[in-house]
Amino acid sequence: MSTASPSFLQRLFGRTDPKDSLMPLYHAIVAEGRQPHWYLDGAVPDTLDGRFDMIVAILSQVLVRLQEQGATQESVWLTEVFVDDMDGQLRQEGIGDVVVGKHVGRMMSALGGRISAYRAALAGEADLREALVRNLYRGEAVSDAALTHVEGALRARWTRLGGLSRDALLAGDIG
After folding, report:
1. pLDDT reported for residue 94
2. Most CB within 10 Å of its CB: which of 51, 70, 139, 141?
3. pLDDT band at 171 (very low <50, low <70, confident <90, very high)
4. Are 71 and 64 in contact (CB under 8 A)?
5. Within the chain, what is the greatest distance between any pair of CA atoms?
6. What is the pLDDT of residues 89-118, one digit of tens each?
7. How far apart are CA 129 and CA 136, in angstroms?
8. pLDDT in tens, 130-165
9. Rounded distance, CA 30 to CA 52, Å?
10. CB atoms near residue 26 (< 10 Å)
11. Distances (CA, A) of 14 to 4, 55, 59, 64, 113
């Protein structure tokens, strides 16, 4: 994770970045996306792309929940924290300035599409299994047992998110 130090002016005038308050929530999302069961029982590819896709699946649920709770600004800030982290991760991988913007643009496009797909599936307007095959497994064949594991765990997470207050969620409790 990239953690930028406050600018000189921020330190001088005592202003803090409002996104900082969302770091516990973001760290909880990333920690959940890195849980071994997704990769072992769920057969999510244990690759950079697979880990990105798993974190985005959980981030999508949290963003939808925040929007449902009227935490629109916090949802925007959480998305910005994600973008900042992905930018930092790409730079750590040695990707240069010229190309980073294109990669981040593709990641944001993927996030937007997945939020829509997962929102519709969790609302019962689309099939979650199809959304997972398309977005999490990128169309690759996956066993029914693995798909059932991921679908069940994400539905359980969605249920738990539905029982959390806005304050609990913003404090980093994702159920």
Report:
1. 73
2. 51
3. very high
4. no
5. 57
6. 777 777 777 777 777 778 888 889 999 999
7. 10
8. 999 999 999 899 999 999 999 999 999 999 999 999
9. 9
10. 21
11. 16, 33, 30, 32, 38
Can you tell me the distance from the alpha carbon of 50 to that of 15, in angstroms, rounded to the nearest whole number?
Answer: 37
CA distance 168 to 58: 16
Structure tokens at 83: 């973008």
DSSP string, 30-75: HHHHT-HHHHHTS----SHHHHHHHHHHHHHHHHHHHHHTT-HHHH
Write down the pLDDT at residue 14: 58
Provide the residue type at 12 as one letter.
L
Instruction: With beta carbons less than 8 A apart as the criterion, state whether 54 and 33 touch.
Output: yes
- DSSP H or E segment with residue 80: helix 72-92
> For residue 143, what are its two tokens?
């066993």
Q: What is the pTM of this model?
A: 0.85
pLDDT in tens, 66-91: 999 999 999 999 999 998 888 777 77
For residue 43 the two structure tokens come to: 């057969």
Contact 157, 58 (CB under 8 A): yes
Report the candidate in 146, 116, 161, 173 with the shortest Cα–Cα distance to residue 46: 146
CA–CA distance, 74 with 166 (Å, rounded to integer): 10
